[in-house]
Amino acid sequence: MDIAVKPLDPADEKAVEQAYQIAEAATVADLPDFPPVGRQRFLAELRHPWPGTGHEQALATIDGFVAGHLKIELPLLDNLENAEVDITVHPEHRRRGVGRALYEHALAVVRGLGRKRMMGMSVETLPGGAARDEAGGAFAIAMGAKSALTDVRRRLDVTEVDDAVLDGQLAEAWKRAAGYSVIRWRAATPDEIVDDIAYLDGRLLTDAPMGDLGWEAEKIDADRVRAIEAVCAARGRRRYNTAVRHDASGKVVAFTTIDFPGAVDWHAFQQITIVEPSHRGHRLGTVVKLENFSYTRAHEPGLRAIDTWNAGVNDHMISINEAMGFRPVDGWQNWQHVL
Hints:
Elements: E1 3-7, H1 13-30, H2 39-47, E2 53-62, E3 65-75, E4 82-89, H3 98-112, E5 117-124, H4 135-143, E6 146-157, H5 163-175, E7 180-186, H6 194-207, H7 222-235, E8 238-246, E9 251-260, E10 267-275, H8 284-299, E11 305-311, H9 315-324, E12 327-338
Helix pairs in contact: 5-8
């Protein structure tokens, strides 16, 4: 059995197509409730890398068949000791050493760059939840990684939403949010609030539970926000945003985003929700989530499902999500390998 790993050249159309086929087959096998990756989305993500991040990719072959794909993301503006690793092995070629070969390649790359930590994720079954192949977790342990944080994915079935219930929740939340007003936008953040959004976005890794993961707060400024928006536009992503402004100070103090990666119109991701600490206690998290949900539905009539992830210990955000109707689907283990 001969396994070879070689770097993936984004200009090599045949190799890119092979990587795409691996991603699509793995999604069908491992996450059957997810939408297809979609060739357009896969190519867009490859051709328009995330700003402030270096990227290394590789393909593994076994006896001449392309069987595995590796992505390494390397923060370049902060978290300079870290690397994020995503290994995908085609379902027809698993348990034959392909994943190990890709992991060893990743270790060599990351060590060669002087990084000290590798992070990755694997899915697992929740009690009473959808059955998931947990081989990824066993593999991570075998490679020497340790569990650092457990997330839970929850899904909102938009077709089952009780609008009267959500309207009541929003009305009650606004009773606690006197002195605040709503701002909504798609595409580019309005110039007058971009600095506030950058500040809030930069707080995420400070405020969100991170367990034992060795992440530091990201250095987000207006230029980085604009660079991220440019990449999202180039990838064809549709993003709906709602913020609340504190009327007395004029500052934006909370915001949230719902993101459509572009492959389908029925599925989206609930992304960042953050409230500036000095303005907590006014139900602003509930306000922005419900206002943004309504805003998104007004523009996306085909929306049927929204997925979101929360750390298992993030009780406050989980309570907001579950009140909206989000329900647990599966667990996601965050692994960390200290080199």
